[in-house]
Amino acid sequence: MGSRFVIDSTSSTPPFEQLRMQVIEGARSGALVPGDKLPTVRRLAEELGLAATTVARAYRELEQDEVIETRGRNGSFIAASGDAGRQQAQLAAVAYADRVKSLGLAPDEALTIVTAALGIRR
After folding, report:
1. Nearest to 79 by CA among 71, 45, 97, 5
2. What is d(CA 78, CA 42) in angstroms, rounded to the nearest whole number?
3. How many other C-beta atoms can be found within 10 angstroms of the C-beta atom of residue 112?
């Protein structure tokens, strides 16, 4: 599978900034959710035809902005965002989504279950 990131070599925006903005936009739009693992610096650099230092710079800046978190040798992941309560809710939602997927439930059914659990009527 190829990278979900694309670098425009004709753009006046530096490659590290293009990558940084794509990760931020992915996290904002929900295309990247808390806990999603990012490719290693070396692998992403190879996929995008960039120097590893370019990808490392983007990751470093994303980590400083708390968009991603690096867990040592385990890699870099999209971080939960917002206040502590919101972060915990995001992580719980990701765990729930992973669990219902492993149980083979359809997304609509999973939403019905969580909506009922929250006491919300449609």
Report:
1. 71
2. 18
3. 13
**Over the stretch 94-103, which tens digit does the pLDDT of each residue have?**
889 889 999 9
Task: Report d(CA 92, CA 17) in Å as an integer.
Answer: 31
The CA distance from 86 to 67, in Å, is 14
Beta carbons of 69 and 63 less than 8 angstroms apart: yes
Bridge partner list, 70: 76
The pTM for the full model equals 0.71
Query: Tens digits of per-residue pLDDT, 25-42?
Result: 998 888 998 989 999 999
CA atoms within 13 A on the CB side of 81: 17
Question: Contact, 19 vs 39, CB < 8 A?
Answer: no
Q: Are 48 and 15 in contact (CB under 8 A)?
A: yes
- C-alpha 23: how far from its chain's center? 7
Q: Residue 94: name the closest of 110, 73, 109, 108 by CA.
A: 110
Within the chain, residue ranges assigned H as helices are: 15-29, 41-48, 52-64, 84-102, 107-117
